[in-house]
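debug: dumping io for the single-chain case to check the tokenizer round-trip. Nothing else runs in this session.
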Amino acid sequence: MNKVAIVGMDGVFPHCKDMQEFEEKLFSNQSLIRNWDLVASYDKKIRTKVAGYATPEETGFQKFSNGLPDEYPMDLEDISGQIPNVNLATSDLGSAWAMKASLGAIKDAGWTKEEIESEETGVVIGTGSGGQEGTRKVWNLFFEHGKKTRALGSSNVSRSMIYRDAANVSCLIKNKGVCEAIGSACATGLGSIGYAYRLIAFGLQDRVIAGGTEGTALETLIGFDAMQVLSTKFSPEESSRPYDKDRNGFVCSFGCGIVALENYDQAKARGANILGVIDGYFNNSDGDGDMFAPSFDGQQRLWTGLKKQTYINPDVVKAHGTSTATGDVVELFSIAAQLGKDGYHVSAPKSQFGHMLGAAGAVEVIVSLLMLKKQMVSPCLNSDNLKTELESFQTKDDWQGPKEPLAAYRNLLPQLALAKPINQIVCLNYGFGGTNSAMAISKD
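debug: decoded output
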């Protein structure tokens, strides 16, 4: 198998103008979560009021003046002029972010036009959902306003298809290799990078643009609010609190993370700046028939599969750490069952920017690369008080995991960014339907 390097990265992050600001805020222990005025305008119809969101204008886009009234879907225009209007005409906000971040990652990688526009270059980008704001307006035009189909425009399909992000990036950069969209709920971002890793490792591509995106959409937040799984009752900066005993749900967030992967030998030969090396990737399913609840057994098998691929001795475990009642504890117990109670730290990036859904795993790979760069562990904000009593499932006869409460693992969870030598990081992400992904990343 070929060794795989990460040679470029870029993204779109809530409440940040660029990668530099994102890095600065991460390691100075800042939260990127804000009150969302649009949500607040619906008053008691929506329980939560906070999100990690970004507007088109904050991310370098504006409404394209096409002369249509507001009930029609918004066309976007790139303020910087990098992305032509013809490409944005088939794109929703998430796809626009994916194109912008892909161009940034390619620039970071230093790939030539000839290399990009070749059969050896692939694209693998996914999302949790998307195109919803545009789709809502299109259907309203037909069903509520009585418009004919020809008045609805020709871009609704391309803006709402599950493949839209990968397709828009591929059309923009004109690669001739693989172009795929991998969807695995909240494991989508990491799963897309993992699939891209395999394409290079098995010699099917020389380089791949990969990651996940999740465009800001009120519809997405409404869906999770209806499930009563979002954080309420806390200030924005305190609302995402993985592992804390008072956590009561995750913060719905939006963003994009894209990385450029390349055959390591080729990257080394051309003198590329190697940000990290992927040691191995493994994914599996819980297999217990539960759509929502995490599985200790499934996560243990995930670790076992990763360990069969490569040597695993992480200095940091980048946890999924959503701030949900059951997910956090099962994950931490699963990590401790594999690695013990000391010798490593657990990073919880969602404590700073919330849960970016289909983009989460990819953005958190970028966080992991920044940890390698700075030799610092990003914090687990708001993990103020850990439960000192056993979980109910720990008292059952069939429980095979650790027998101590969460508080016994206080030393693993830095509440502020922590400087330490970091050589290897294991990234974990999970999704509805019992899908699990794990990737080990090391310094070059």
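debug: round-trip ok. The radius of gyration is 21 Å.
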